[in-house]
Automatic annotation (TrEMBL):
Listed name of the protein: GGDEF domain-containing protein
Positions in coiled-coil regions: none
Domain of life: Bacteria
Source organism per UniProt: Microbacterium yannicii
Keyword Cell membrane: no
Length: 391
């Protein structure tokens, strides 16, 4: 029985080496290079440590270097702490990245220094439980925010982390209820933990690479660009026809105030939902014959066929409604927006000109404190001209 489990352990070790190598390549080559920063750096630490430790375990098993195998087993248990630190950094929480290094180093030293197999089994159970605690802490941090709970990419890792913590706690308690014999019980524990690690690493790399790609906008620009191009085509055609009628038209450019801070603090999922809610409120507040488009998350452009007095009322209404937006309590601050109002009667009927000047007017409104609108006038035009003349 022991020989069978030992043989399976070597095969699983090779599988672990392959999986952790691929995970490290994805974490560094995709996540970190796509979005360099503390979260992806800590995740890269986790996968690199897991890869190197797994190679050490396999090498120790093949060459019968028991000290190397045990030290590598201990170092491997520091990877969940680094993963936890990476997610805390991504969620705007204090990462405590030093904990991963302490756990890896302490477990490696302790497991490598124990000769008696029975005591080693108990030490391994304790170290395994310590590693599982960080999986449990990850779940607790995830559960504290509605925006994190709505992130489907992280959900598989959450489920596996719960199982990891339950297993770690169960094996730790079992070590006291059933004293270790130093035989098949430890080999079985190693086999189960190895299978669990394969699943854990797979779910972790999906969460890490998936959230990084999503937060960096990978895969979204095509959809956003298609919708925006469609708006430009329809709005441009309507303006060409409107130039031959006495009806008054205007472009309103709305941009969320403090958008980078909201994205960083609340997370990409909450910011994306806020951007969707912004578009929904704009469509509800403006007349049905208006055209609405979004050039980027957090920005909305409206082509509205209304006279000046009506546009003023619409701006007051929409700015007030934006302050009451709620995304399941996930936003750190009350959302506000700044609006730029570009009337066609003053600037002509070229859509690009109206959008460009409207965006500049919205920036001026944001610089003045936000939660207000600014009409395009001579000051805005002079500001654009002076900027274009800079070397």
């Amino acid at each position: 029985m022991t020989d069978l489990i030992a043989g399976l352990g070597v095969d699983l070790g090779i599988a672990q080496a392959v999986i952790t190598t691929l995970a490290t390549m994805l974490a560094i080559g995709v996540a970190f290079l796509l979005r360099p920063g503390p979260p992806t750096l800590y995740w890269s630490f986790a996968f690199t440590l897991a890869m190197l430790a797994t190679f050490g375990v396999v090498a120790g098993q093949i060459t019968d270097m028991e000290g190397l195998r045990r030290a590598s087993l201990g170092a491997l248990l520091g990877a969940p702490a680094f993963l936890w630190s990476g997610f805390r950094a991504a969620w705007g929480l204090r990462p405590y990245v030093w904990v991963g290094a302490v756990v890896a180093g302490a477990c490696a030293v302790v497991l490598a220094s124990i000769d008696d197999l029975a005591w080693f089994t108990m030490a391994y159970r304790t170290a395994f439980f310590a590693a599982s605690v960080f999986a449990g802490l990850f779940v607790l941090d995830w559960a504290r925010s509605a925006s994190r709970r709505s992130d489907r990419l992280v959900l598989p890792l959450v489920i596996v982390s719960i199982a990891f913590f339950v297993m770690g706690l169960a094996t730790f308690v079992a070590g006291f209820v059933y004293p270790p014999s130093g035989g098949d019980d430890f080999m079985l524990l190693r086999l189960v933990s190895s299978v669990g690690m394969l699943v854990y690493v797979a779910c972790a790399v999906v969460a890490v690479v998936g959230t990084t790609a999503r937060d960096s906008g990978l895969g979204r620009p095509a959809a956003v660009s298609t919708g925006w191009h469609q708006f430009e085509r329809i709005a441009g055609e309507r303006l060409l026809r409107a130039e031959r009628t006495p009806e008054q038209w205007a472009v309103v450019y709305l941009g969320l105030d403090d958008a980078p801070d909201i994205r960083q603090t609340a997370g990409a999922a909450a910011f994306a939902r806020l951007s969707e809610r912004l578009q929904e409120e704009v469509r509800a507040a403006f007349p049905a014959e208006s055209d609405v488009g979004s050039p980027a998350p957090g920005d909305v452009v409206v082509l509205v066929p209304r006279p000046d007095a009506a546009v003023r009322d619409l701006l007051r209404t929409i700015l007030d409604r934006i302050t009451r937006l709620d995304v399941h309590g996930a936003l750190p601050i009350r959302p506000t927006a700044s609006a730029g109002w570009a009337p066609a009667s003053v600037l002509g009927y070229d859509l690009d000109t109206l959008v460009y000047t409207g965006r500049e007017a919205a920036r001026v409104a944001s610089e003045k404190g936000g939660d207000r609108w600014e009409r395009v006038g001579s000051a805005i035009v002079e500001r654009l001209i002076s900027r274009s003349e800079l070397p």
